[in-house]
Amino acid sequence: MYPAELVKPMREDLTNVGFEELHTSEAVEGALAKEGTTLVVVNSVCGCAAANARPGARTSLDNAKKPDHIVTVFAGVDKEAVDAARAHMIPFPPSSPCMALFKNGELVHMLERHHIEGRPAELIAENLKDAYNEHC
Questions:
Q1: CA torsion sign, 17 to 111 to 116 to 98?
Q2: Are 50 and 10 a contacting pair, CB within 8 Å?
Q3: Which among 17, 64, 67, 114 could disulfide-bond with 37, CB atoms 3.0 to 4.6 Å apart, if both were Cys?
Q4: Whole-angstrom Cα distance, residue 112 to residue 85?
Q5: Model confidence at 1, in pLDDT bands (50, 70, 90)?
Q6: Distance (Å, rounded) from C-alpha 111 to C-alpha 95?
Q7: Is 0.90 surpassed by the pTM of this model?
Q8: DSSP state letter for 14
Q9: Are 14 and 49 in contact (CB under 8 A)?
């Protein structure tokens, strides 16, 4: 588990633009039970989260269509919430960072770490925007 003071700015990178932090499995289940679309970002302390994932997720929200709900869990910190979120991402193996778009609780789009690592934030944002345009 990472110290709270270490991850605070990494959390705020998403919460400052409206992402809701989920810390428990109950919170994840509640978020995914909501009607409409929900983007779940599994945040991480790694460099690709800082350089690619979080900026890509933030930039993706600059789109005419966007998810009804945006939430985040933090790998290595919110174990219970991350495990619950990943249970809904099956058949994809656990990875962090990663991003999943759900529609009425059903997984409709997934970006795994290997889709994020080494790719510019703009490309990640475009990938998410395409998913929003199709599903939102």
A1: positive
A2: yes
A3: 67
A4: 13
A5: confident
A6: 10
A7: yes
A8: H
A9: no
| Residue type at position 52 | N
- 48 catalytic residue (yes or no): yes
Catalytic status, residue 98:
no
pLDDT at 2: 81
Please state whether beta strands 37-43 and 69-74 pair in parallel, antiparallel, or not at all (unpaired). parallel
The answer to whether 127 and 61 are in contact (CB under 8 A) is: no
Where do the domains of the chain lie, and which CATH numbers do they carry? Answer: 4-135 (3.40.30.10)
Q: Are 75 and 42 in contact (CB under 8 A)?
A: yes
Q: pLDDT digits over 36-86, tens only?
A: 999 999 999 988 899 999 999 999 999 999 999 999 999 999 999 999 999
List the catalytic residue out of 27, 31, 48, 125: 48
Q: Tens digit of pLDDT for each residue in 81-111? A: 999 999 999 999 999 999 999 999 999 999 9
Active-site entry in 46, 53, 75, 100:
46
